[in-house]
Amino acid sequence: MRLVMYGLVALAACMGAISAHAQTALSNRPALDFSGAPSSSGMGEESPFARSVAARYGGLNAAAIVADARAQGFACLADQSACTRETMEGACAIAWIVDIEPSGGVSGSHVKRCMGAEE
């Protein structure tokens, strides 16, 4: 009985260590940068936001990326392939996008798209 009890205590300690490690891994990384101007042409891959996505999420698994992105107001697809945060400015949508590759790669973009003519 004691052996089972020790096993359960050890398992609980490991689970706590894994959770703490995931939180620590992100707490030591730079925050996402929402400050730059969005790209109204192209895909916005050279934006400060895109660089911050690579710095914050590089090397993490999709579940950790999705959990952190959701905590920051992103809506993520069920298949964990992308997360998006959008705002509207008149007839224009501004989007911050985190793309998660099945191979483990991650990239970001910050774009502005307008309905009809650009303001």
In which range does the helix fraction lie?
Answer: 25-40%
Quaternary structure type:
single chain
Residue-averaged pLDDT: 82
How large, in whole angstroms, is the Cα Rg? 19 Å
Structural class estimated from helices and strands: alpha+beta
- How would you characterize the largest beta sheet? 4 strands, antiparallel
Spatial order of the strands in the main sheet? Answer: 1-2-3-4
Number of helical segments with 4 or more residues: 3
Q: What's the β-strand tally?
A: 4
N- to C-terminal separation? 72 Å
Shape: globular
Uncertain segments are 2-22
How large is the share of residues in beta strands? 15-25%
Run of helices and strands: HHHEEEE
Structure description:
- This protein is α+β, with helices and mostly antiparallel strands.
- Helix content is 39%, strand content 24%.
- It has three helices and four strands, in the order αααββββ.
- A four-stranded antiparallel β-sheet has the order 1-2-3-4, with helices on one face.
- The longest helix has 26 residues, at 2-27.
Give short descriptive properties of this protein:
119 residues, alpha+beta, 3 helices, 4 strands, globular
At a glance:
The protein has 119 residues and is an alpha+beta fold.
Secondary structure elements and their pairing?
Blueprint: H1 2-27, H2 48-57, H3 62-71, E1 75-76, E2 82-89, E3 92-100, E4 106-114
